[in-house]
Specification:
Length: 208
């Protein structure tokens, strides 16, 4: 496995890299939760971001693994509710970038496949990051679901996430972060959806 892979939004304005892959085991998951679906619909990118059953392909990483080389002024942030995740995207072309916890102290970033650009290294997503390990939150998916989809969060995925974060805390992988400054504040003030906006988005999400 190569040590890094390029990050690039659809129009090429935002560019960067995801590093430290050579020692990372397979982490990819496909999440079918209603919030991931709503995020894609909010950006108008559901057709080319979501799988046919409503899944978002995510690679769990540490903040220190991600660096942006250009276009950071186009990074914007959305929260689906006042307590929701920080969902980052490239405003220039509405490309989803990543999901972050509410606290900068948590060493976790869910990098969304749409920002990952393996072709720059002459690779495929599977070759660079390994195949998806699980498909979760199928109760929110659009029928028919792909075989092997778990209805909720697969226990193995929970263990993987806890282990990833525990190692991240030990190794202090929270900072530097491209999404939070040195004081722990978001680099961009997030836009928080109103309840009626969120409810309208959920009307077009699964299950149907």
């Amino acid at each position: 496995m190569r040590d890094h892979i390029s990050l690039q939004c659809r129009c090429g304005t935002v560019q960067g890299k995801l590093s430290g892959l050579s020692q990372a085991k397979g982490r990819r998951i496909v999440c079918l939760c209603v919030d991931c679906q709503a995020f894609a619909h909010y950006l108008g990118r559901a057709d080319d971001v979501l799988t046919p059953d409503g899944g978002t392909d995510i690679y769990p990483a540490y903040p220190t693994q991600i660096s942006f080389l250009r276009g950071t002024e186009h990074l914007k942030c959305l929260r689906l509710s006042p307590k929701g995740l920080y969902r980052w995207y490239a405003d220039c072309c509405k490309t989803p970038v990543a999901n972050c916890p509410r606290s900068s102290k948590v060493p976790y970033v869910g990098v969304i496949h749409s920002i990952i650009h393996p072709a720059a290294e002459g690779a495929t997503l599977d070759a660079a990051l390994g195949p998806p390990q699980a498909r979760i939150m199928g109760k929110y998916g659009i029928r028919p679901l792909q075989p092997g989809t778990y209805n909720t969060a697969y226990p193995g995925v929970i263990v993987m996430a806890l282990r990833l974060m525990a190692l991240g805390w030990i190794k202090r992988q929270q900072h530097p972060s491209p999404f939070y400054d040195s004081t722990g504040n978001s680099r961009v003030t997030p836009y928080i959806l109103a309840l009626d906006e969120r409810n309208e988005l959920r009307k077009v999400c699964g299950p149907r």
